[in-house]
Design brief:
Layout lengths: L1 E2 L10 H17 L23 E5 L2 H5 L6 E9 L8 E2 L1 E6 L14 E4 L5 H11 L11 E4 L3 H9 L5 E5 H10 L1 H5 L1 E6 L3 E2 L3 E4 L4 H15 L5 H6 L2 E5 L7 H12 L7
Helix pairs in contact: 1-7, 3-9
């Protein structure tokens, strides 16, 4: 059996992540569903998502609806208690340097944008959604730089190597709490449209009875007072169980950008 929680697994909150998983595993076991004692941590977060033995992980809505469509099943969606989240939805902040002379999105025409990865809803598609209406002939930015991660994108903007980036609001909250020097050098100028937050998933094809056990275990962990400190460190305010088609929102956002002729970032 494999479990991973890679999406917000910063060194500063690794102890909280492990505590959260220990509680999840305990409640899963109480429901009669065997769970690994320890999380799997791999250099490539997607590696566990390919395993038929995957019990639980967290992914982004974009891989869920694209490369891993039909291979992962949504179990629950965390509700995060940070600005930019509303219930089980989240958004991205559009960040520029704190001292940058930028007051409108239009001021960034021809600028350099940093993005984490092309398969990211919050770091790549979010930029398209915000800037597509301002594009001309399908272009807005003069140059784009792939950073490999949200922290890398923030660092590029902070270090004057990029002018703008889209960062999901949970990551931005983590930076403000745990890396204030980095966050202090950045300023929010806009927010992206909302979408369902990063879901907890399991390998597709599990029997309905197993899915029910996992969901009951997650619900119990979300209400467990003994896990309150871990949840607070991770900004987890609760869990919600969305309808199966909730993540169609990702495809709708992508289609909207395409309809505007915004095929790429630059």
């Amino acid at each position: 059996m494999i479990a991973s929680l890679p999406m917000y697994d910063w060194p500063e909150v690794r102890q909280a992540t492990d505590a959260w998983w220990a509680g999840l595993a305990r409640h899963l076991s109480a429901e009669g569903f065997a769970a690994p004692r320890r999380l799997s941590r791999t250099r490539i977060p997607a590696t566990p998502w390919r395993r038929a033995r995957l019990v639980l992980s967290q992914t982004c809505g974009y891989p869920l609806t694209h490369d891993f469509k039909g291979r992962l099943e949504v179990i629950a969606t965390p509700a995060y208690g940070v600005e930019g989240c509303a219930g089980p939805t989240y958004s991205s902040v559009i960040l520029v340097r704190a001292e940058a002379g930028v007051s409108r999105l239009e001021d960034l025409s021809g600028a350099t944008a940093a993005y984490n990865a092309a398969d990211s809803l919050s770091g790549h598609l979010a930029l398209k959604c915000v800037f597509a209406p301002l594009s001309k002939d399908g272009r807005f930015f003069g140059r784009v730089v792939k950073s490999g991660g949200h922290v890398g994108s923030m660092q590029l903007v902070h270090d004057l190597k990029a002018d703008v980036a889209a960062i999901d609001c949970v990551t931005y909250a983590l930076a403000r709490r745990y890396r204030p020097d980095l966050a202090a050098g950045l300023r929010v100028i806009a927010r992206s449209p909302a979408a369902p937050a990063l879901p907890y998933v399991t390998a597709a094809g599990r029997p309905p009875g197993d899915i029910a056990k996992i969901r009951r275990g997650l619900a119990a962990a979300a209400a467990d007072p003994a896990l309150a400190e871990a949840r607070e460190a991770l900004f987890i305010a609760g869990l919600e169980f969305l309808p199966a088609d909730a993540y169609q929102r990702v495809l709708d956002l992508e289609a909207g950008c395409g309809a505007l002729g915004y095929a790429d970032l630059a």
